Amino acid sequence: QSKHDLKGKDQLLHLIRRFPEGLPVVEVKDSYPTVLDDLQALKASGDVWWLSSMDSQEDIVYPNDPKSKIKVDADLKQLYREIELPRDMIDIEKELLKNGHKPATDTTKRRAAAQIHGQRPKPKAKKKQKEITKRTKLTNAHLPELFDLPR
């Protein structure tokens, strides 16, 4: 038994739009026989967003608000693309500080430490190879020439 008494696709869309925070698919999947097909059609048309997880019990349908569709003018896009960013992180940090923002990194401090201590590559941990002893069980014991066995 479904929580919502729906008869068709229009009522389904109306119901989904009443839940901007999302409507669990489980609540509507037993409303009428072709409800899942209608949900797929609404998703394909762009009227709803259907977010599914591994567990189909947690699928949620969100309304795609037509008011939130924004058309960006080509001139504005071009202006955005023409903005030159500084190549050096120090210049970016100076701009952030000038505008009252605290940068997440301190490039000058990091570079000074690298000059003093030199660039040290992080050592990679090497796995120790196990030596084959007489007590080690060998899968291919019939091929002793492949193994350096202590004699």
From TrEMBL:
Residues 7-64 form the TFA2 Winged helix domain. InterPro entries: TFA2_Winged_2, TFIIE-bsu. GO terms for biological process: transcription initiation at RNA polymerase II promoter. Residues 119-129 have a biased composition (Basic residues). Pfam families: TFA2_Winged_2 (PF18121). Residues 100-109 have a biased composition (Basic and acidic residues). Residues 100-151 are annotated as: Disordered. GO terms for cellular component: transcription factor TFIIE complex. One of its GO terms (molecular function) is TFIIH-class transcription factor complex binding. It comes from Aegilops tauschii subsp. strangulata (Goatgrass). This is TFA2 Winged helix domain-containing protein.
